[in-house]
From TrEMBL:
<dbReference type="Pfam" id="PF00144">
    <property type="entry name" value="Beta-lactamase"/>
</dbReference>
<dbReference type="InterPro" id="IPR050789">
    <property type="entry name" value="Diverse_Enzym_Activities"/>
</dbReference>
<dbReference type="InterPro" id="IPR012338">
    <property type="entry name" value="Beta-lactam/transpept-like"/>
</dbReference>
<keyword id="KW-0732">Signal</keyword>
<dbReference type="InterPro" id="IPR001466">
    <property type="entry name" value="Beta-lactam-related"/>
</dbReference>
<protein>
    <recommendedName>
        <fullName>Beta-lactamase-related domain-containing protein</fullName>
    </recommendedName>
</protein>
<feature type="signal peptide">
    <location>
        <begin position="1"/>
        <end position="26"/>
    </location>
</feature>
<feature type="domain" description="Beta-lactamase-related">
    <location>
        <begin position="108"/>
        <end position="408"/>
    </location>
</feature>
Length: 425
């Protein structure tokens, strides 16, 4: 990913000092208590505490519960006859790497691989178990995106309509004359800095609305997600729709659109349309602001197995493992087609040697544009849900990496995924 533009997504906001301090001595959390880890509301994202906090975010922030539905509706994933182990090796840049060593280096907490809806690999680390609810960071965006794409497919949202048609409160903001599709695919013009060395960057105000960054004494800025979004402006006079820029605020506008047209909170729509229908074995939860608005851009926490069921639902054309259609087929088709690689490149994300060279962005997913139409949900600090609908393979990783973004790690992960898919063919 392009560090200079993406910098950190909302959930990664921290000071440069915190980042630097943790580089050399990241701490594991297995068997340790919150007190022993020294974890509190001020260091949630610090590398010395994040192996604990990412598994226990509900202890520190306001959250909204996402119910899994009736226990009889849960689905226990079967195990495939063919199993892969941590000793699996793959080639990366001319070197042979072992999967287990890579996952250890990346500080993985969970790694689950499905083939045709069956588990071919399931590993947990640092005290995590299959029941652990782990922070998914910006993987949340893809849940929001597929819900938005479904409402478009159902005719409840018009991709070509202005955002202000649905949300008049945003008429005077940067989003007022942007279309739903432009915001959904992040090609709108928006002044939103995620440059964390700048204390005036918009990302810090965004973070304050959900408690990821404390409001200083006498703070007079926006205190809710919606108030924050209403105050955002454009970055110059560049027309909307020309180039892709990954900016977290866009996703919370999509969350607002979803709640508006459905007439209920975004978190309720997520629960009713996805989480209670995919056969989840445990509920999830999402971070929220003081007005109880769920963070649609990076607040979801849930089990790795259940994240895999979401990925499998996408791979199966929007159907759960019982064959029930949850997501409109046109939303799946739109996502599988990917976005515009030229707009992706124009924003600076695709260049010779880039990890995501030749990729695109569509419906809040990163699309490989390969022959298998594979695409992935990505979250900082190592969160992945990779979907290959052609090979019918899903790969989920939950992690607590030291760095929010790490291009070499992402490159290794993609090499590992490609080798796994080939081995399961």
């Amino acid at each position: 990913m392009k560090r200079s533009v993406i910098a950190l997504t909302l959930a990664s906001v921290m000071t440069a000092g915190m980042m630097t301090a943790g580089m050399a001595h990241a701490v594991d959390s297995a068997g340790k208590t919150r007190v022993e880890m020294g974890a509190n509301e001020t260091n949630l994202l610090h590398p010395d505490q994040n192996r604990y906090t990412y598994k226990h975010m509900s202890e520190f922030l306001h959250t909204k519960q996402i119910d899994s539905g009736d226990v009889k509706d849960s689905i226990v994933l079967p195990y495939a006859k063919k199993q892969l182990g941590l000793e699996f090796t793959f080639s990366h840049q001319g070197k042979t790497l072992e999967l287990g060593e890579m996952l250890n280096k990346h500080r993985a907490d969970a790694f689950v691989v499905l083939k045709d809806g069956e588990i071919v690999m399931e590993e947990y680390f640092d005290g995590q178990t299959y029941r652990t609810q782990h922070q998914m960071m910006s993987v949340t965006k893809s849940f929001t995106g597929i819900l938005g794409a479904t409402l478009v497919a159902e005719g409840k949202l018009d991709r070509d309509a202005l955002v202000s048609k649905y949300i008049p409160e945003l008429a005077d903001s940067a989003f007022g004359d942007a279309t739903v599709g432009q915001v959904l695919d992040m090609t709108n013009n928006l002044k939103y800095s995620e440059h964390y060395e700048d204390p005036n960057a918009e990302v810090f105000q965004h973070a304050k609305t959900v408690g990821l960054t404390p409001m200083e004494e006498g703070y007079q800025g926006p205190k809710t997600i919606h108030d924050f979004l209403k105050g955002l402006s454009k970055d110059g006079d560049r027309p909307h729709g020309q180039e892709f820029h990954y900016l977290t605020a866009n996703t919370d506008v999509i969350g607002w659109l979803i709640s508006t047209v459905e007439g209920k909170p975004y978190s309720d729509v997520l629960e009713e349309r996805i989480w209670s229908k995919i056969g989840a074995e445990r509920g999830a939860y999402i971070m929220s602001d003081a007005a109880s608005v769920g963070l649609a851009s990076g607040g979801l926490n849930g089990m790795a197995r259940d994240m895999a069921k979401f990925g499998q639902m996408l791979a199966d054309g929007g159907k759960n493992l019982r064959g029930e259609q949850l997501i409109h087929p046109d939303a799946i088709k739109s996502t599988e087609q990917g976005g515009n690689p030229a707009k992706f490149a124009k924003g600076g994300y695709s260049y010779d040697g880039a990890v995501l060279e030749g990729w695109s962005y569509k419906n809040q997913f990163w699309h490989s544009m390969n022959e298998n139409k594979a695409y992935t949900a990505l979250g900082i600090f190592g969160q992945w849900i990779y979907v290959d609908p052609t090979a019918n393979v899903v790969v989920v990783r939950q992690a607590s990496q030291v760095e929010s973004l790490n291009d070499p790690n992402d490159a290794e992960m993609l090499s590992a995924i490609n080798a796994i898919i080939k081995a399961l063919d």
